[in-house]
Amino acid sequence: MRLVNIRPTRRSAVLLGLAPLLLLVFAYLIASASRHAINPADKILPTPVAMVAAMHSLVAVPDPLSGTLLFWADTAASLSRLGLGLGISTLSALLVGLVLGLVPGVRATFGPLVTTIAVIPPIALLPILFIVFGLGEAAKVALIVIGILPFMIRDIAAHVEALPAEQMVKAQTLGASSWQLALRVALPQAMPRLIQAVRLSLGPAWVFLISAEAIASDVGLGYRIFLVRRYLSMEIILPYVAWITLLAILMDWALKQLSTRGFPWAHAK
Amino acid sequence: MSAMLSLRNVWVEYGDKVVLERVDLDIAERSFVSIIGPSGAGKSTFLRLLLGQEAPTRGRILLDGQPLLPECGPDRGVVFQRYSVFPHLDARHNVLFGLECALAPLTGRLFGAARRRAMAEADAMLAAVGLGVNGHVYPAQMSGGMQQRLAIAQALVKKPRLLLLDEPFGALDPGIRADMHVLIGRLWREQALTIAMVTHDIGEAFALGTRVLTLDKRRHDPHAPHRFGATAVYDIALDRKLAASAASITIDENDNN
Lengths: 269, 257
What we know:
The complex is a heterodimer. Chain A is mostly helical. Chain A is 78% helix and 0% strand. Chain A contains 10 helices and no strands. Chain A has helices spanning 10-38, 48-59, 70-102, 104-118, 122-133, 137-161, 165-173, 178-215, 221-228, 234-262. The longest helix of chain A is centred in the C-terminal third of the chain and has 38 residues, at 178-215. By secondary structure, chain B is α/β, with parallel strands linked by helices. In chain B, the strands form 2 sheets. A 6-stranded mixed β-sheet of chain B has the order 6-7-8-3-9-10, with helices on both faces. In chain B, strand 4 and strand 5 form a beta hairpin. Chain B is globular, with a radius of gyration of 19 Å. The model of chain B is unreliable at 247-257 (pLDDT under 50). The chains are: A mainly alpha, B alpha/beta. The A-B interface holds A 164, 166-167, 169-177, 179-180, 183-185, 188-189, 263-266, 268-269 and B 51, 53, 71-74, 76-78, 80, 82-90, 97-98, 100-102, 105-109, 138, 140-141, 151, 154-155, 158, 160.
């Protein structure tokens, strides 16, 4: 049988997918153990025991200075910034994308502007954001929005514009006004695409969040990672990175569920 | 029979390319006009004119004596070869769409008793095209023939003055196509429709139409082939069928045509 025709069953696909992950963990454990065999005080590849001990003080022991549980405070701060940035971007992308995709006059007027903004590297704007919004929450949320919104707008606008012309003509022969076209034809068909755009934007959104937190912050997952870097605390950095990865996977999974449950027609094959 | 739709000296030009020239036609109410012609002879342009998707460069188009607006409206229904149903709505809501647009300008949705009335109307229309039990099926789960039935139901629920068909059965299997011919013929008689159908299939054109229009170029300049447009070179009235359909509405039991 040809290689391209051999399909794994569902269960073997799960096992196959897990194998490289487990292999990676296993390789780390071996590397860590061998480094500690040579130098018991090694800081580069900490043992799981050291990670659990370091994380325990962050997860369960209140910080003597602020009295908060740092790990959960970091998580809450980062997630609220990310949620706010994603939320503002999603809503604006939907509204602006629909209008840009549907109304030729608006597209002609604002399309080039959106394209121009989209090619500006967002990190290059970070100093401006800090100057305009100060070092508080607004600048961090604004960086996320500026980073992902233009891409999302362009994606939604292109998707709406690419809806078959036959469908638009048909709707008009059924008496639909411009408003009804937007509300009943374009909006529902843009929704699955919007969720897809949010999923694709999650990665960049995290990048912008961590960048903003690394530069100016006093709480947050990115802040903590860059803070403990000074002490070479890999036993904190690695669990934090794993935690961020887990959060990102969960968000992606939840969005995918939302799309398949909420818009089954878009996933019917 | 009075002319419902009149084209008076209609020209369509794109830049210096002439697509249609000197089209003068009257289409009578309750007629079934088949439009055939070679590729590039302006069949689709002709249909877009009737649909209001495009305005003539010169000349006038009158519907019931009034100039036709160059924008699609609910007085003209359309069924395209593909993509004319909404993939995000099930069959029932696809048909309901036209009723909701008329009655709910702001929300685009009906509620309560008005919704139940519209639902009943939509269900009756689905039953008329043979999709009575498929109300909850989404277009992606339908065969090509079912999707075209749905597209027809969707258009007819608005009771259009003129139904335009753009190669509606071109993508269907021969067997399904024959079923669709029976269906559209029956709907045309029962609902007293006026239909203009563009088709590639000459057999289909003659089997269904009461009149067959052939669009083609009358003149040809080999040095500037784009400077002459197409027009109706043959206009064949199939009177036998007109008589038959007239007989069928007077319920003449002896007429077995």
